[in-house]
Design brief:
It is a single chain. The chain is of the alpha/beta class. The protein has a 9-stranded mixed β-sheet. Helix 2 crosses helix 5 and helix 8 packs across helix 9. The chain is globular. The termini are far apart.
Length: 320
């Protein structure tokens, strides 16, 4: 009888230990996932607070090329946000001011995008780099700091807003014509500052797409062969960087009734066609869709870059 009681007691302890292990296997991963997942509510107020007020401007370098004045600048907000920006303004002053074109391109190009636009164009041109991009590419990966990835992504929108504040204060800028251009990765972000800042008169989304998780899965095809695992990895990665609150489909309708232009390549190998269509469907009138020949924009594809630059700048000039 005593033997049975010992067995019963031992069996109970075994079951308790087993259930404890199983519970830990569920609770711990859920807690870890919860601890790194960002808030999915409307982040507009967070963007405004992070933008803050422009506190100081550091001019790193200023030089003249042809008829243009270039400046490499770092903007400092009272929130602690820092934005690296390069501007190119015509040397000759204009009473009316010049159309402003602000570019957010790819991560590698950053603020150097101004050098891809011909100086023959009499415009006020600026481009910004992604905040913390050096840490994201180096220190962030080394430390596997997911929060840093999220902050990098979320700081991009406030960075554009702060850059607009600085540029609007320049006398050379025509406040009635402000063009915001998002190229490739930049096309994912610029719909948000364009929606939030009514001073933007026209927004350009160049080689952009919606459905970010499908775009990520498309890019993972060469690395993850299993279709199911690839979709799971894309889903998890997209949510770790707050895709639900940042995806452009949630913001484009707010740009209306201001102008919106999509430019997409017919043979774009970087993004699924269905995701491009999803982006277009999410917009409200008035908007325009322009399809061009060729593949996805890349700085090594000079003909593609030059063709897009000429198309946009010609439209900017004829809008005056």
């Amino acid at each position: 009888m005593k033997y049975r009681e010992d067995m019963s007691s031992g069996f109970s302890w075994f079951r308790l230990a087993l259930w404890s292990v199983l519970a830990l296997c569920v609770i711990v991963p859920c807690y870890l996932l919860w601890s790194v997942l960002p808030e999915l509510s409307d982040p507009s107020n967070e963007f405004y607070q992070r933008r803050g007020l422009l506190q100081s401007v550091d001019i790193e370098r200023e030089w003249q090329e042809g008829r243009s004045i270039f400046r490499r600048i770092t903007l400092h907000s009272d929130s602690g946000l820092k934005v690296q920006i390069t501007t190119r303004f015509p040397q000759k002053r204009s009473a009316q001011g010049y159309p402003l074109v602000l570019i957010l391109g790819g991560q590698r190009t950053g603020r150097d995008a101004v050098h891809h636009v011909s100086q023959q164009q009499p415009i006020a041109l600026a481009a910004i780099s992604y905040p913390h991009c050096d840490n994201w590419a180096g220190e962030g990966i080394k430390r596997f700091d997911v929060r840093q990835y999220q902050q990098t992504v979320r700081d991009t929108v406030p960075a554009v807003l702060l850059a607009l504040d600085y540029l609007f204060a320049q006398e050379s800028v025509d406040k009635q014509q402000v063009e915001l251009v998002g190229v490739s990765l930049g096309a994912f972000f610029v719909s948000i500052p364009a929606a939030l800042d009514q001073r933007v008169t026209r927004t350009w989304l160049v080689h952009g797409a919606g459905e970010p998780e499908k775009v990520i899965a498309h890019k993972l095809k060469g690395r993850i062969q299993n279709d199911w695992l690839r979709k799971v990895a894309a889903w998890a990665g997209a949510r770790l960087i707050a895709v639900e609150s940042l995806r452009p489909e949630n913001w484009l309708w707010r740009i209306s009734p201001r102008k919106l232009v999509f430019i997409n390549a017919k043979d774009d190998e970087e993004i699924p066609f269905t995701s491009v269509e999803a982006l277009h469907r999410s917009a409200s009138q008035p908007y325009e869709v322009i399809w061009t020949e060729g593949q996805h924009i890349n700085t090594s594809r000079t003909e593609v870059v030059q063709g897009l630059v000429d198309l946009i700048m010609q439209r900017v000039q004829t809008s005056r």
